[in-house]
Design a protein that fits this description.
alpha+beta; 9 helices; 300 residues; two-stranded antiparallel ribbon; 6-stranded antiparallel β-sheet; disordered N terminus; 32% helix
Length: 300
């Protein structure tokens, strides 16, 4: 076949266009196999990765990049666009999609896995969790505020106070033996009627200033809420019947239904206080919320 110079130039341009088109199609197909284009459980026809960011995965521009990515991915899950068991794009793909480092993506994915949104499987990838458990949050508030909110008069009485070391008659499981602690026993009243009994341990290594507090005008719970930070809290709630001694303190008959709450607060992995409340069942109520951190951020 003979070509003139002009025809050769035209033919070269034609080949370049074909090669470019096939390369683009090959790239999109490769991404489809990796789960970025909707052909691996993410819904919709094949599409280029840049369009994916606009389809529910766009960042909102608020705060650190890892938080933005976390919200974008959580939003897909909470709105049902990504279903249980579906595989997410890997960290390299998300990193390329958002133009951020893999470390930033890893931090977002790790937080979502910690909250129960995702499951990370070695060599298999990251998947939307099945049966995700939400966080049940109980409020930590002073009993005096609860009573005042009901329009009643609050009073408290310190029944016992003593300083000792952990393991000497009292054991706090999360503290080393020998740690100095302050043990308090308190009774709380609403309009003169006892509603709650409290036994509290305070870690004097973490809160040494409490040793000088008399609690003459401020209840221990109020003092802690106002002065001592905490980063996490664990609650155990049970229904129990009042023993004879406890029934006499609370002014009820032995065997009366009561609510038992055990709470430990921690700040930066350091136990602050361990407290046990016993409340008369028909004189006290407790409510909380089941919600995820990402649901809060997304206002869902």
């Amino acid at each position: 076949m003979e070509f003139t110079i002009d025809r050769r130039i035209m033919y070269i341009h034609y080949l370049r266009n074909v090669i470019s088109q096939r390369g683009a199609e090959s790239g999109v197909q490769g991404l489809a196999r990796q789960g970025l284009t909707g052909q691996d459980g993410f819904g919709g026809p094949a599409r280029k990765p840049e369009s994916l960011a606009l389809d529910g995965l766009a960042l909102d521009g608020k705060g650190p990049l890892f938080d933005q990515i976390k919200r974008a991915v959580a939003g897909q899950i909470l709105r049902g666009r990504w279903q249980s068991g579906e595989r997410l794009p890997n960290e390299a793909e998300l990193s390329a999609l958002y133009g951020v480092s893999r470390q930033t993506v890893n931090k977002a994915i790790a937080l979502l896995a910690r909250e129960g949104f995702l499951v990370r499987r070695r060599r298999a990838g990251t998947f939307v969790a099945t049966g995700r458990r939400d966080r049940f949050a109980l409020p930590i508030e002073d009993i005096g505020d609860v009573v005042a909110r009901e329009g009643r008069v609050y009073e408290f009485r310190i029944r016992e106070r003593r300083s000792l070391r952990n393991g000497e008659g009292i054991r706090w499981p999360d503290l080393p033996d020998g740690t100095p602690i302050l043990a308090l026993e308190c009774l709380h009243f609403s309009d003169g009627t006892p509603i709650q009994h409290e036994r509290r341990l305070l870690n004097l290594d973490a809160v040494p200033e409490v040793a000088e507090e008399s609690f003459e005008s401020t209840a221990p719970s109020r003092w802690l809420v106002d002065r001592v930070p905490w980063s996490s809290a664990e609650h155990t709630v049970r229904a129990v019947n009042a023993t004879g001694d406890m029934a006499a303190l609370l002014g009820v008959e032995a065997g009366t239904a009561c609510l038992s709450i055990r709470r430990q607060t921690v700040h930066l992995n350091r136990p602050i206080t361990l407290v046990h409340f016993l409340s008369v069942g028909d004189r006290f109520s407790l409510s909380g919320s089941s919600i995820t951190d990402s649901a809060t951020e997304l206002n869902l």
